[in-house]
Amino acid sequence: MARPAPPAAPPPRLLATRLLVKILKRGLPFDRALLHEHANPFVHELLYGVLRHYFSLSERVSRHLQKPLRNKDFDLFCLLMTGALQILHLRTPAHAAVNESVDIARRLGKPWTDKLINAVLRTVAKDTFEGQGIEAAFDHPKWLIEQAQAQYPHHWHDLLLANLTKAPMCLRVNATKTTREAVLETLQRNGSPAVPGALPSCIILEAPMPSEQIPGIASGELSIQDQGAQLAARLLNASSGMRVLDACAAPGNKTAHLLEHTPGIALTSVDQSESRLQRIKTECHRLGLPTPEIICARFEQLAWWDGRPFDAVLLDVPCSGTGTLRRHPDIKVLAKADDLQAHHQSQKRLLDAAWRTLKPGGKLLYSTCSMLKRENEDSVQALRTRSDAAVLDMPQIKACGLVSIETQSGVQLVTTPQGPDAMFYALFGKRA
Ligand SMILES: C[S@@+](CC[C@H](N)C(=O)[O-])C[C@H]1O[C@@H](n2cnc3c(N)ncnc32)[C@H](O)[C@@H]1O
User: Fold this and answer.
1) What is the distance in A from the centroid of ligand 1 to the CA of 99?
2) Which atom number of ligand 1 is nearest to the Cα of residue 273?
3) Cα gap 253→248, rounded to integer Å
4) Measured between alpha carbons, how far is 212 from 195 in angstroms, rounded to an integer?
5) What pLDDT is stored for residue 417 in this prediction?
């Protein structure tokens, strides 16, 4: 018997509108909202675009509504932001954006909105947006703008604007299987040219493409990983035979890189998320790497630890993710200033426990993907002042030429258009 045909995919603008409602109204993170959805590249472009420019688009649309929309018409508000995005950032002619939006509104069961859509989008197209608020001017929430102004008095403007650019697609070469030169040649032959990144393991694709189309992903020669994150294994710089701990390891991007970078380490990967830990096994299998010892536990309780100290520890703590706003623009809308204190407290607890597992003479690398001092310098401050801890230099960061700022204890990477996510690293040695 013939199978029934699968249901037709919804038009991209309709799917994008529905997904925006899930993210903006129900607070679902981008990745979870997209789970099980067949979102094509245009849906991604609409979603990323609206989230990236959420503060200006929402102010611009709201300005031209004669009265605020009812709660139950939030989908219409998302549709209007999607239309405004197309006109203001994707060079769609206003009449085309209006027609498409009117069509989607009908599919949403709101045929009464034709005139409203027409009026709002056509005035958005002509408006010069004088007198817009600071959130709309920089497309970031006020609390984050204020933190950036206080922390980076000379650069905050450029740093925030860099978050509005598209992140480059960075690949990590699996040094246990191939070389960067061989991969660059294959990509060139395949018609997907790429250039070497700042680190020896890194390649940057000239044009992003779906991961399943990149030669070398299925065969385990390549992984997708930002170049800032690729610094971790180089900075920890373990040696073969060492006992190494990856303290917050899942889903295992840095775990895999540690194994590629230094074959022969005895690696233990701990995380509290069982489902995310599963991905470490899958990744090691894909990359042809030995599976590390995997432990599911709340790290700071140390109930999982047999008391044998480690030679090197990587602590990649949970954080606000504000260093990755190019890739995760939903964070700008979903994260709140109050979250920082909770992250800070948990980071200090994790760091305290990680230090206890480290051998005298060993080293610990603390990392976050945050651009905020509260989660970086402030969280490592207590360790920096301990008598058995020494702040170690990380000359590899200067040597690779990525833009960065030195802090008292570590280095803050800075996002630039082709540069890395704004990760923070601090390396400590334990005095014998
Ligand atoms: C930034 S992510 C780690 C990313 C990982 N290092 C990588 O490169 O793929 C932080 C991780 O910390 C884990 N985590 C958060 N709190 C934890 C805790 N108390 N104990 C153990 N793991 C924790 C989360 O489940 C999450 O997987």
Assistant:
1) 45
2) 25
3) 11
4) 20
5) 83
Residues 295-319: tens digit of each pLDDT: 999 999 999 999 999 999 999 999 9
Pocket of ligand 1 from Cβ distances under 6 Å: 248-254, 270-273, 276, 298-300, 316, 318
- Peptide bond before 251: cis, by omega within 30 degrees of 0? yes
Question: Could you tell me the fold of the domain covering 231-430?
Answer: Rossmann fold (3.40.50)
- Please report the pLDDT score of residue 130 as a whole number: 86
369 is catalytic: yes
Segments in the chain below pLDDT 50: none
Mutate to test the pocket of ligand 1, among 235, 267, 272 (most ligand atoms within 8 A of CB): 272
Q: Which fold has domain 12-137?
A: N-utilizing Substance Protein B Homolog; Chain A (1.10.940)
As a whole number of angstroms, the distance between CA 233 and CA 242 comes to: 14
Distance 303 CA to ligand 1 centre (A): 17
The rounded distance, in Å, linking the Cα atoms of 116 and 412 is: 47
Claim: this prediction has a pTM higher than 0.85 = yes
pLDDT for the residue 38: 85
pLDDT of residue 132: 87
Q: Dihedral sign, CA of 90, 95, 100, 105?
A: positive
- CATH T-level fold of 169-224: Alpha-Beta Plaits (3.30.70)
> Residue 344 Cα, ligand 1 centroid: separation in angstroms?
14
What is the position in ligand 1's atom list of the atom closest to the CA of 250? 27
pLDDT at 37: 87
| Tokens found for residue 234 | 């180089």
**Residue in 172, 235, 245, 248 to alter for ligand 1 test, most ligand atoms within 8 A of Cβ:** 248
